[in-house]
Amino acid sequence: MNEKESSRKNARARRDLAVMAGLAALLFVLESSFGLIGRSVAFITSRTLTWPLVAFVYVTVCLAFALSIFSLRRWKDLKSEIQERERIEEMLFKIRENLETTIMEQTDDLRKNNRQLMQELAERRRVETALTRSEARFRSFMENGPALAFVKDEAGRYLYVNRAWEKLLGRSRREVEGKTDFEVWPQETAESLQANDRRAWESGQPLEMLETLTLPNGVTVYGLTVKFPLSDPAGGRWLGGMVIDITQMKQEEAARRETEVRYQSIFDNAGDPLIISDLEGKSLEVNRVACDLSGYTREELLQIPITRLIPPKFANRIPRMMKTIKKEGRAVFELEAVTRDGRSLPLEVSSRLIDFGGRMTILNILRDISERKETEAKLEAGFRKVASMLDDTIHAIGRIVELKDPYTAGHEERVAQLASALARELDLSEEAAGTIYMAGILHDIGKITVPAEILSKPTKLNAYEFSIIQTHAAAGYQILKDIDFPGPIALAILQHHERLDGSGYPNRLPAEKIIREARILTVADVVESMSSHRPYRPAIGLEKALEEITLNRGRLYDPEVVDACLRLFREKSFHFV
């Protein structure tokens, strides 16, 4: 805008200057002409002139007048020229102004077009780069993929094969490209491939097929092939294809079928009843032995849910057993089944997860354990009898000690009662409680080696006599150590006078070497002894006994055993029978 305004000011100044110059010239001419005429008239009137001179003056005046008229006309022409020039300059100014505007607009358009062109070029480069990368990825995929890829022309010639062909055929793909199937494959294979090509051409769409390829070396390869027609806008036509080698899959399938045949034969001829069920308990397959054992036909067993063959008292086990099988993959359990004629049949069932026909199922191997159950019942009765005899024997041995020391009669039985109760209070097993009970009965068996006069002495024992008494723990161990008891009974008897602080006898053992059974036996022996009468003193009483073990809890006596003993007497009202 400043440039345009400056141009207008310059044009206006030039025009004003021209007008002023024209006016000055006109005034000069008029003044000169009329001045000359005036002076001529004055001259004539002031002098007496001759005719020639008058003529000269006249001519001069006429010339001056003519010159004035010419100057006036010239002024008009000059004014017209100035006006025309002004008009032209104005027009040129407008043209220039319009031209500048047009140029600026075109320049803006050019800039916009240039930016758009740059963006289009950048986008084109991006697309070309992406296309190049995509083509590289596709080529890498085609070249390095495990599938055989090919493109044929309409004449059946291979235009392209990928690297996988080299591995399959054992020859360069350059030896394949440009050739037909008949130049690459044996005659029979080539004819089959050509027939499949024609089917794909005729279908006009992708066609999937299974092809058998016999290699030149005679090896047979099975391929899952997809063939598809290709074309371009120019009318070119090709046939593309991808072949996946499924030879190993076919071999595995054949082996699986063979295995299934063998499995079915083994399944049908197995000596044990076999039932294959789904994960919900429905029978899918049963063998002949299962039918014979149950009394049902195969068709009936396949229709009857397994749960209907189980008596109600075992029904609640089924969900738990199924959960175990699903979690661990196998389980072994016992239950009873009801046969067709209503008999209750004890069975051992060994179950495991298997793949049956492509689905997860349960193989149940059933064994009739009727004879085993009868044998177990007989053995259990025998064990009970032996246990009873052992118990009677142990009590008989205990009575021997009582006969040796009649003043402590019942001590062994009461210690055994309290010791076994302590074991149960400490959450030990029934087997452990039974072992500790036997140890309680036998814990003083070593006293049969101590003279009776010392055992029944009514006064306090002297040091020598007490040392003799202390030998009974080791003597009891020597008597029992070679007997195969169901637990460390002999060792518990050896240690039942040991103390946690190492002050006990016979070996002054530290706490970590005293076994659990001996710790329990110790507390039971102390409590019973202090609660009962002795030849050399009256009974001290239960409360004093409990006070003793409380006072020495953790120093002489095991704290857990002490706590259990206090609970038995003070919270659970334990008493000797």
UniProtKB/TrEMBL annotation:
Spans through the membrane:
51-72
Give the Gene Ontology MF terms in alphabetical order. cyclic-guanylate-specific phosphodiesterase activity
Tagged with keyword Transmembrane = yes
What EC designation does it have? 3.1.4.52
Ranges for domain PAS come to: 134-204, 259-329
Q: Where is the PAC domain?
A: 331-381
One Pfam family in the UniProt entry: PAS_4
The protein's UniProt keywords, in alphabetical order, are: Hydrolase, Membrane, Transmembrane, Transmembrane helix
Residues annotated as domain HD-GYP = 386-577
Limits of the HD domain: 408-530
* Name recorded for this polypeptide: Cyclic di-GMP phosphodiesterase response regulator RpfG
Which species is this record about? candidate division TA06 bacterium ADurb.Bin417
Q: What is the lineage of its organism?
A: Bacteria, Bacteria division TA06
